[in-house]
Each structure stands twice: as C-alpha cells, then as structure tokens.
Amino acid sequence: MAVETGIIAIGASVAIGTAAFATAWAQKTIGAAAVGAAAENEKMFGKGLIYMVLPETIVLFGLVIAFLLWTKM
Amino acid sequence: VLERAWTHKKRKVVSMGLEKVIEKIQKEGTEKVTTIITDAEKQAAQILQTKQKTIEESSAKKKQELEKQIESLKTQEASGIEIEVKKIRLNAEKDVLNTTYQECLQVLSTLPHDKIISSLLKIVKKELPDAAYIYSNKRDEPYIRSSTKIPFGGLIETLGGIIVENKEKTLQLDYRYETIAEIIWDRSLKEIAEKSIPSVFSSKRLSLFSSGNYPYVCARVRAKRAFLLPYDTYRKFLLMDIHEITRFLGESSYKKEINELGLKATEHHLIEFALNRNIAAVYQQILGYCEGDLNTMLSAYLQREDIWNIKAILRGKSYNAKSEEILKAVRSSGKYPEEYWQDIVQKSKTVQETIELLKGNDYYETIKTFIQDWELHPAECENKLEQAYYRLLLNSVHSRSEPNRLFLEFIREEINLVNIKTLFMTKFESVEPDSLHTMILPGGNIQEKTMQHLINAPDFKLFLEEFQKISEYQIIRDTIETIEQTGSLSQVIRTLEKEHLTKATKKSYLHPLSILPILDYIIRKRIEIENLRIIMHAKEKGLSEQVIKKLLVI
User: Fold this and answer.
1) Are the Cβ atoms of A41 and B213 closer than 8 angstroms?
2) Which of residues 12-71 of A touch B (CB under 8 A)?
3) Does residue B184 or residue B349 have the better pLDDT?
4) Could you say which of B140, B195, B385, B496 has the lowest number of CB atoms within 10 Å?
5) What ipTM was assigned to the predicted interfaces of this complex?
6) How many whole angstroms separate alpha carbon B368 and alpha carbon B356?
7) Nearest by Cα to B80 from B343, B261, B413, B453
8) How deeply is B62 buried, as exposed, middle or buried, from its count of CB atoms within 10 A (0-12, 13-18, 19+)?
C-alpha cells in the first residue's frame, strides 16, 4: 500500500511539474515577444497580455491530473 | 498795534503752513527714495539670482558636454585598442592557416598521382564528354598519354592534376591540385580554422543550439514591419512633387530625421540624408537588441554597408571628390559607427592614405592585396571586395543549428540572385567571358559546371538557352519576352528581385522564430529606402510616372 501511494505521489508531482515547466517556457517565449511588439506599438500590449495568459491552461491540466491522482491515494 | 499784531499772527500762520507742507513733501520724498532703493535692491538681487542660475546651468551643461566628450574619447580609444588586438589575433590566425594550407599542398604533392589522375579522368568523361585537349605537368604526362584518348594539349606548371578544354576552347575544367585545394579551402575555411586554432572557436563548438532572443526580436521586427510604407503610397508619390513627398515623409516614420536635418540641408539633400540616417538608425536599433549568435549573424550580414562605404570612399578619393561629397554617400548602418568613417574621409587625401587608415578593418587584408590595381581596374577591385564579403559571411556561420542553416541558405540564394543579375547584364552587353570570372561571387547554389556553361556562352541568345536549364528560369519565364520588346533588362531584374523578396517573406512565415523574419524586414526596409531614393532622383530629373513605376520594386 505504501509503495502504491508513493508511486501515485510521484506521478502527481511529475504531472504538475512538467506542466508547470512547459507553461513557464511558453510564457517566457510569449512574454518576450509581447514585450517586443509592445515596445514598437503600444496597442499590442493588450493582445500580448491575452496571449501570455493562454499557456496557463497547460498548468491547469497538470493540476487537474495531479488532483485526480491525489484523490486515489 | 492791533494791526501789527494781526499781521504778525497772519505771517506766523502762513510760515507754519509752509513748514508743514515742506515737511510733508520731505517725508513723501524720503518715502519715495526708500521705495525706489528697496525696489532697485530687489531687482538687483533678482538679476543676480538669474545670472547666477544661468552661470550654474551653463557650467553644468559644459560639464556634461565635457564628460560626454571624455566618455566618447574613452570609447574611441578602447575600440581602437580592441581593433588593434583583433588585428594582431587575426594576423596570427592567418599565419597558422597559411602554414596549414602550405602543408596541405605538400601532402598533396606526395600522394599517388596515377590513382588520382585516373579518377579525375573518369570525372572528365562524365562532365565534359567532348573534351579535346588535356594539359598536365611533365611528371604526369606519360601516364595521361597512356590512359586516355584525349589529345595532350601541352605542359602546365602545377603540383599535379589536369586541365581539360573542349574543341572550341570555350569550356575549361580546371582539376589542378591547387584549384581543388583552393575550392575546398574556401568552402571549409571555418572547419580548418577550428581544427588549427581550437582556443578561438572552442566556446562556439560547445553550443549545439544557436543562442539568441528570437521571440523578442521577431515580434518587434514584425511590429516594425507594419510601419513600412504600403504599396499604395508609392502610387501617391508618383502624382506628388518633391515638396509634397518631403512633407508626407515628414509626417511618417522619417519624421525625426527630417526634423533634425530640416535646417541643415536643402530639400534634395534633405531626403537623401534623412533616408541614410533613418536606415542606419533602424539597423543599429535592431542590432542593439539582438543577442548571442543572432547578433553575430546579423552584424556579419550588415557589414555589406561597410563594404559600400569602403567602395564609396575609395571611389571618391580616386576622383578627388570633396570630403563633404563623399560623406553624403557614407552609410553608418554597418559594423563601424559614423565617426569612424568621418575620421577616415577627413584625414585622408589619397587612396593610399585611406587604405592606411583602414588598418584594423575586417577587410584591410583583402584591400591590401589588390590596392596596386585600384587606379587601373577599380571595378575588378570592387568585385574582389564583394567576393571577400560573401566569403567572410559564409565562413562566419556554422550550419549546425536550424537558424544558422536557414541563414546560410538565404545567403546562398542571395548570391545566386546577384550572380544571375551580373550574368544577365554582362551577357546582354556582350562582355568577354574571361573578365566575367572575376565578377561571379563564390558560394552560390548553382553548380560549378552549369555556371561555367553560363559564363562561357558566346552570345546572349545562347546564354538564354543555357539559362533555361536551371530552375531560376521559371521565375523570369514570363518576362523574358520584354527584353526583345523593350531592349532593356529592367523588367527581368525587377522580377528577380521581387522573387527574392517574396521568397524571403514566405520563408519568414514558415520559420516565424528564426533569423528569416528579421532579414525579411531588413530587405524590405532597404527596398523602401531604395524606392524612395529612385522616386526622388527621378522626380528631380523630371522622368515620367511610367518610367519611375518601372524602376520601382513593388
């Protein structure tokens, strides 16, 4: 039982960890691009902000999976 | 008595009234004097304060200016030392590379020649089946005579290898060891350098991925692209006169430069200066926010502006043009700042002096090799300079990572475009094939054999026939008829340029986070500047709208 719980915990941590890493990478790229575009044209700031928030969904999926795994513990 | 007393009293009253009046007047006078003195003091204090403030301000300003001057002197000195260090390092590298090259040639001369000659003969059979003459050195002559039916044409001085020619002697294949070594040397100079001088390139060898802030720069450049003049604007310009165009540009992205130069230059020069300054500012700004390998690649690419400057200065000096005239043509959008070029132009009087001042420049060594010929054959020397630029550019980029590979591909396509344009223009003007060899840039995608056929085509008609065999023909297929109709190549040249532009744009969409969107913008900006320059000059000369329209790349 203890081994199973441990494996589930590792699975949950991998799910949230990788998702968070992917989100961070995507947001870094989009953020840099958004700042670049806004530097040339201020009107781009709003659009850039919206694009920047989109990768948040990735980490949310990771969170959901981690939560589902946690309930199995 | 009464009367006397009355008169006395009356007198006393009168004198008392007068005293009071005098006293009053005196009092008022004193008050007024005091007020005037106070006001004057106040004013004096105020003036003093203002003057003090002005003195303080001007001294602060002077101090700032001096600090700036000191700073710029420091930077100049530092960059001078940096250039000197770079020069010493480059010379050392060059020595090592030359030694390696000589060693390579020595090794080549000790190889089993019979085997090499027989494999070269096999290649000749494939590449030039109608070979009519074969040349070699004395050592290889007996073996060649015994192993091929191609008649022996004569002896040549070489380490080894052969030269073959067709019957008309219009086509020549050079397979001498020196030529082969030179071609391989040119192609793989970078790799050889890495092996010979590991310390210089070791840091680069470690990086498997190309470094650079691609998302930031690409997004910024895309946003910048939206501010380029739309196609319709050029049509509007055709209907406007120079004053109207200047006014229009003064309200566009050229506003800053036109306002700055408005008082200094006349209208025709104003646009020329403003365009030069604008493109320099834009290129420098882009370079400023590029990092890592991206910055290295872009600055190598933008060195074409330095080549332009060297050519303009040398041309100007050989015709004894005034410094101001030369400076008008100088662009500061390359690697070296405006002050660097100003310094060279103002300090030198002759071509020789200019070259001495160019010491430390990346192209100094190249210029030194042909400088004796400059007075006699300036065009050939300019070609050599251009060839050196592309050779250095191709050698400065590794093809390991994807962005670098794309960049190399783009450069090779550009070389193709330049070579095709040169071929068309020279063949159209019936230039001798011998002099054409020096005009062709190395490193393009067109095969050596095909290029030789194109160069050696005896006339324009046969050249077109040869040209039909290569893929680039499809681009100009529809415009080829215009050459006969109009007697001019302009339509074909424009089509080739447009295709290069379209290709760059298409590829920039396929690889949105690579160097291609940046190059696409750089080309578009350059074309915009060139178009504006064409319009202004054509308007000045009074050319018709139709003619101007044909000259533009839209």
Assistant:
1) no
2) 29-30, 32-37, 39-41, 44
3) B349
4) B195
5) 0.84
6) 9
7) B343
8) exposed
- Higher per-residue confidence, B63 vs B482: B63
Nearest CA in chain B to A25: B215
Kindly state the tokens that stand for B182: 């030179």
- For B85-106, the pLDDT digits (tens) are 876 777 777 777 778 777 887 7
Q: What is the pLDDT of residue B39?
A: 92
Structure tokens belonging to residue B374: 């400059």
Cα torsion B348, B351, B354, B359: sign: negative
Contacts of B554 (CB under 8 A, 6+ apart): B231, B234, B531
Q: Which residues of B touch A (CB under 8 A)?
A: 213, 215-220, 222-224, 226-227, 289, 513
State residue B66 phi and psi, 5-degree precision: -60, -45
Q: Could you tell me if B380 and B355 are in contact, meaning their C-beta atoms sit under 8 angstroms apart?
A: no
Separation CA B134–CA B151 (nearest Å): 6
B551 within 8 A of B254, measured Cβ to Cβ: no
CA distances from B463 to A64, B71, B164, B174, B496 (A): 68, 58, 22, 21, 17
Q: Are strands B131-136 and B161-166 parallel, antiparallel or unpaired?
A: antiparallel
Query: For residue B363, which of B339, B342, B384 has the smallest C-alpha distance?
Result: B384
**pTM given for the model:** 0.64
Q: What is the pLDDT of residue B203?
A: 37
Look up residue B373 and give its DSSP letter. G
Min CA distance, A24 vs chain B (Å)? 15
- The structure tokens 């229009």 sit at B248
- What average pLDDT does the structure give for chain A? 92
Confidence class for position B219, pLDDT limits 50, 70, 90: very high
For helices B516-541 and B402-428, give the axis angle rounded to 10 degrees. Answer: 30
